[in-house]
Amino acid sequence: MNLHALRLFYVIASTGSVTRASELLNISQPAITAQIKKFEKELSLSLLMPQGRGITLTDAGVKVATLAKRLFAVEQQIEQFALDYGQGSFGHIRMAATYLPAHFLIPAWLAKFKQQYEHVEMTITTTNSSGAESAFKYGR
């Protein structure tokens, strides 16, 4: 399926107008119309029908627009996740520490860290120094 054509269709469905979609996307009306015709042919569905000087969605068009809205919302979530992840806002930190730091120092540090990076998961293992070294060495 041509996702570019789906996006064009979605903008038309959202604005209710090929003209407004054309203005928003900086694409000529004939180019948009040609893409939509090709997209309808690809799907073997009629998505739009003329109504006076404008257009209206067919029943199939309403359903495709609803599904497209969900798809583009997920796309936006993926883009936001990638941005956040790249900035260190997501992930998993594993930490091994001896008893004293694990119970008296690290909790305060982690509380501060979690305020800024609430989606970063943390795992703390309390162990002796050789256990901490082993955990680091073998990624446990």
TrEMBL record:
Highest rank taxon of the organism: Bacteria
InterPro entries listed in its UniProt record: LysR_HTH_N, WH-like_DNA-bd_sf, WH_DNA-bd_sf
Sorted UniProt keywords: DNA-binding, Transcription, Transcription regulation
Residue intervals of the HTH lysR-type domain: 1-58
Pfam families named among the record's database cross-references: HTH_1
Keyword DNA-binding: yes
GO molecular function, a single term: transcription cis-regulatory region binding
Family: Belongs to the LysR transcriptional regulatory family.
Protein name, as recorded: Transcriptional regulator
Species name: Paenibacillus pini JCM 16418
